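The instructor's notes for this session suggest beginning with a concrete chain rather than abstract definitions. Hand out the sequence below and ask the class to guess, before any prediction is shown, which regions might be ordered.
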Amino acid sequence: MIKKKDISIVLCGPAGRGIQTAEKLLVSIFRKAGYHIFATKEYMSRVRGGSNSITIRVSSESVKALVDRIDILIPLDRIALGHVEHRISEETLVIGEKDILLNPDYKLPCPIMDVPLTRLSKETGGIIYSNVIVTGLVARLFNIEKSVVQSHIKQAFGHKDKKIVGRNIDAVSRGFDAGKQMEPDLRIELRTRTMSEIKNEFLINGGEAVSLGAIAGGCRFIASYPMTPSTPVLTFLARHAEHFQIIAEQTEDEIAAINMALGASYAGVRSMVTTSGGGFALMTEGLSLAGMIETPIVIHLAQRPGPATGLPTRTEQGDLLFALYAGHGEFPRVILAPGSLEDGFLLTRKAFELADNYQIPVLVLTDQYYIDSYYNLYRLQTEKSKNRATVMKTDRKYKRFALSKDGISPRGIPGYGDGFVEVDSDEHDEEGHITESSTVRINMVEKRLKKVEALAKEALPPEWIGPKDCETLVVCWGSTVHIVTEAVRHVNQEKMAVLYFRQVYPISPEVQDYFKKPKQMILVENNATAQFGRILKSECDLEIPKKILKYSGLAFSVEEITRQLQDIVA
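After discussion, reveal the predicted structure:
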């Protein structure tokens, strides 16, 4: 019998065996059964073969971070065992086919509970059904009612042919019965919540959080070229485009995408692009164009390891400095980096407000780990955002780039009023006419940069998590926040706190105050060169000598951060 506050389940197998389908089915079934869920995945860059893994934490309490620990491992082939070998311990329970999994060259530190997945799959209709069999098996181990599981399968596959729906119900039933036969040897006991506790909960991942934030922010146009891990934002908005009156365009390349989005924004429509590092590299000329013509745009940059193609399906916080310095010339921008799903929604919504109000590009930085992670949410703050009109009706004297005290010119759009709205990528005067006057050039540069001071004053302050009188302060940004916060709890030092940055540029002037009291500071970043540390040094003259960095292409785990924090404070 397994008795823990939370149980970590890992499904591992080759691409094409449907473990992602099993993930979607299980997280939804677990939520409906009254559990807290966290799920994420790591996968290879291939359509078939290789070895990919899904981690699902099922808990009596809220969980939002990746752990190395595996309580139940379901490998679908022998390669899977080697793939997650470093995570297997004596306490791991391996469920699978002994004949396939046993390897004379590798001795497992734990027993294998034999389940004939191949035979059950063939009896159902083919190996493709093994993922649904696994779903039924796991559901039974957690004492979830068979009728609940079957009902969910009907709902999930209801859009398919009746024959396929029937086979999937048969598959999940076979898995459920296999789990029942294991019951004398294994029984999992976790406290579940009542229906009243979970009725208002929902389950989303990072890609959906960013997409919902874009909708709430008034996005009406998205143009992008598909690129892992950013594509889920494009597909979500395209799927719901008709309902929310959004135009979604899959372009021929990223250059076309950003220029098309700028064209839509010039016409007065809130617009965005979603891309990753290589795609953003192609967008940098368009980014500079946005800076010169002072046209708002939101850029969602989902990071992955580079340089070049790098590890296209892995994760890293490696594009922060690229996002900060991309584009030729000097012009203002804002960079937001959500770590929680709630912040993914709120910050993306805010990105559209900032872009419109200041007529600038705003970047939202995520990464593969963030985009592909799920957990339970009670609610999102869905009160109305400030989607107020930021365009004016022009008159004949209208000047698109009129000089102003705060650097923000009245924004007109073509066809709305009697004025002429002229923009040009060359330096220009107040009316938008090309110029080579040094005096005008100086005025225009200073006009654009005036926005930086106002943006800094409006910058979101970092979030302090833990005791105010701490002696050790752990600094992080973006997607590492939940991992770091749980690790700090495990270190169990009364005088240790976390400082989480969700806006990484410009930095709030209040930041200096946070660093005055702690005796020791530790910086955590999922990259090799402590990029945010460099920003803190250049913007705040703050040096954090102790760093925890990772750049293997994989996300941090709670155990990793816990061990390294313990070593530092020891």
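Then share the key points. Residues 389-458 form one domain. The two ends are 36 Å apart (CA to CA).
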